[in-house]
Design brief:
Radius of gyration: 21 Å
Low-confidence stretches: none
Largest sheet: 5 strands, mixed
Number of helices: 17
Strand content: 5-15%
Number of strands: 14
Shape: globular
Strand order of the largest sheet: 1-2-10-7-3
Mean pLDDT: 89
Distance between the termini: 48 Å
Length: about 400
């Protein structure tokens, strides 16, 4: 077991290669880990992470003015409080629930069927690069009512936004490049927003353009920020979660067989994937005042990173936490996609992810389709598996071989 000592760093190559090896030692020996290079604290115990994410007066989202607002081109939901947060959150949530969600599920199925079709005769696919990543973009563009022919360009701009938000120690040149891409994305969205104000449709951008807060329509800047907020939040974790789900199931063939026999177990497999390997590994907050946390005093104005991956594997919260078990009694599938979730993959408290129900519907729809199309799923011989990312984390690729069950997806 690696030893946590004064020379240990979460910014090191060793940690980046496999952070899970270090989580138990962090929780036991260094529950409030300080990184002097970035003047930040890292919290790893489940109870401490939950406290940080729910004590909104002590641990604020003020740092997002620097970490997110420059590339979001305006304030994001996580920066808002009070009536403004409640109203704007409801507007976004309505875009991912009810009738809107039912329509989105049909679009998800159609997008997935189109993307997977060319690979069915080959019996081999990279679930990240061939399928999951383009699918996540396409699905989100459908929700927003953006043209999928612009997928590659939007993905490039969005990559710059995500790099800025999730980068821990970016160089000045990296920051400049990210800001340039964000500005280009803003310029792309400007005429779309103008058009939706004149001729709104059923898409989420139209709903944002026609919604009001305190009787006043949202400005173009506010709409732009929320659209980019949705793009990042919906695209970044989706391909990672899908690939991680299949990685776990392939590595646990008895559980894969159980999910095949009983598709009702699929939501439990998704929930356990989110607990065991959450795609969002870090959530930042800023201390409003000096505070005692995990036995140490954290000064006012300090950045505190909640280590979601470590918290989700805390034995104080989950039995046998390093084991992937779709039948675990201490998770609870029904609550795992709600505000009552015990795992912290969606965050918790006031700023819990607004798209949890959509995430479940998207991954469940796509995974169910793929399991019906792929028999005898296995890792491609010789393929190297590698996960990347400190802030968000997932497979760089997931190459699998399969025996096609049939040549085309069943109608939805």
């Amino acid at each position: 077991m690696p030893q946590v000592n004064a020379r240990f760093s979460v910014l090191s190559e060793d940690f980046a290669a496999d952070p899970y090896r270090y989580f138990s030692r962090l929780r036991e020996q260094d529950a409030i880990h300080y990184e002097s290079a970035i003047d930040s604290y890292f919290v790893s115990r489940h109870r401490d992470v939950k406290r940080v994410l729910t004590d909104h007066e002590t641990f604020t989202t003020e740092m997002l003015q620097v970490r997110a607002e420059p590339v979001m081109r305006g304030p994001v939901l996580a920066q808002m409080t009070g009536a403004e947060h409640t109203a704007k959150r409801k507007i976004v949530v309505r875009g991912f629930t009810g009738q809107a969600l039912e329509e989105q599920i049909r679009a998800i199925h159609a997008n997935a069927a189109e993307l997977v079709a060319p690979f069915l005769s080959r019996g081999r696919i990279d679930l990240v690069n061939d399928f999951g990543r383009p699918l996540a973009i396409d699905v989100t563009l459908d929700v927003l009512g953006l043209d999928k022919k612009d997928r590659r360009q939007i993905a490039d701009w969005l990559g710059g936004v995500a790099e800025f938000v999730t980068g821990i120690d970016l160089t000045a040149e990296q920051r400049r490049r990210c800001l340039d891409r964000a500005e280009r994305l803003e310029a792309y969205l400007a005429p779309v927003i103008e058009e939706r104000r004149r001729r709104p449709g059923g898409d989420l951008i139209s709903k944002l353009c026609t919604a009001e807060f305190d009787g006043i329509a949202m400005s173009d800047r506010e709409v732009t920020a929320l659209v980019i907020n949705v793009l990042v939040a919906a695209v970044e974790p989706a391909d990672k979660t899908l690939a991680l789900l299949f990685k776990h199931l392939i590595d646990h063939p008895e559980q894969l067989a159980q999910v095949r026999r009983d598709p009702a177990l699929l939501p439990a497999a998704i929930a356990e994937t989110l607990r065991c390997t959450p795609p969002v590994q870090l959530i930042p907050r800023q201390t409003e005042r000096d505070v005692l946390l995990a036995g140490s005093t954290v000064p006012a104005g300090a950045t505190v990173f909640c280590m979601i991956g470590a918290a989700n594997r805390d034995p104080a919260a989950f039995a046998a936490p390093d084991a992937f078990d779709i039948h675990r009694a201490d998770l609870g599938t029904a609550r795992s996609f709600t505000a009552a979730a015990r795992h912290l993959a969606f965050g918790t408290g006031l700023h819990q992810c607004v798209g949890a129900a959509f995430a479940r519907a998207e991954i469940e729809t796509v995974a169910g389709m793929l399991l019906s199309l792929f028999d005898e799923i296995r890792h491609t011989p010789g393929a190297r598996y590698r996960e990347t990312g400190l802030y968000t984390r997932g497979p760089a690729s997931l190459c699998i071989d399969f025996t096609p069950a049939r040549t085309a997806p069943a109608p939805f």
